[in-house]
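Usage

Read records sequentially. Each one opens with the input sequence:
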Amino acid sequence: MLTLQKTTALDTDYLESLGFVWHTDSDETSYISDELVVISETEAEAYYEATNELYDMYVEAAEHVIENNLFHEIGIPFNLVDVIKESWESDVHWHLYGRFDLAGGIDNKAIKLLEFNADTPTALFETAIIQWAMLKQNDLEEESQFNSLYEALIDNFKRLVTLQEDVSNFEEVYDGWSFLFTSVKGNAEEENTVKLLQHIATEAGYNTEFAYIDDIEFSSEDGIFYNEQNYELWFKLIPWEDIALEESDLAMLLTNIIKSQKAIIFNPAYTLLFQSKGLLKILWDLYPNHPLLLETSFEVLEGQKQVKKPIFGREGESISILDENANSIEKTEGDYDSHKMVYQAYTELATDSKGLSYQAGIFYAYEACGLGFRKGGKILDNMSKFVGHIVK
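and closes with the structure output:
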């Protein structure tokens, strides 16, 4: 059984003072757990090493997709293939951050990759700010976490300019480029997450501005504009696959903007390759029986318990757990039933005394840099809770 440490819950006024307003779920229960998962230094190090290894494997798998033109196989919309290739081939299209979802790592369970949220990962605010506040407000040692996410993002923002590990010369090479941060209207979680990233970029040394997507102008010839100012750098918390499927004109504009080098977009278009759960199948082809991977196929796996999930599904929607005979024993409803599916070998998550499951999320920004947990049922959905951690 995994070890938990009880804490005093953060009150809503305090959370809102931090800009964290999505603290209560639709059933009026707190989204933030009042417990911490206790892990050891050895477990934290194992998460760090596994995540860094997995990222390198993802780079190899993406290269394999591009070299062998497997875009269709992993569900990449045809109207993004050119911009993916363009962004992949130039170092200026730097991957800012992503989040790996992992099973195991605690309760003596082996670490296994579930998926990589590489384009628009959630739980950034919770991981970087809230779980740190949980330690601080409970008079616990604030350094006792595997959590340098905030500092890692500052450095990785600087690498967008230096394009190397050492960022000490950022001020010398930064040319005053303007950085525009964007979300959709009407979603407080996304807006405040984007504004947190804007704050971090400002701290890194950029000139920044925030705007809603509806208020921005895009030009194939001239780039990205807001209030008649041109922005060389643009961060969008809007999934690339949504742009491709729902805003095809914008997809074409962004392709042309990148090809003509009028702006650099974050996260880059190639992160959609990482985001596709179809790449889990490619990983298994390239690294069969790798200890960090679960067997994954586009066909039902014969004779074993497995999870059926859409290649671009989100928030635990349209997922089924199948038994050894491929019969559904648990499922969630959702908007992704018509998407292409992958079948991934089932692995048990660590559980607590109430039978709730715990899944690790590890943020990656140049390297593994921040751990947080989600807890819920067998299939974690948008009603799962965020759980901080402490290293002892």
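Summary fields computed downstream for this record:
- The mean pLDDT is 95.
- The radius of gyration is 21 Å.
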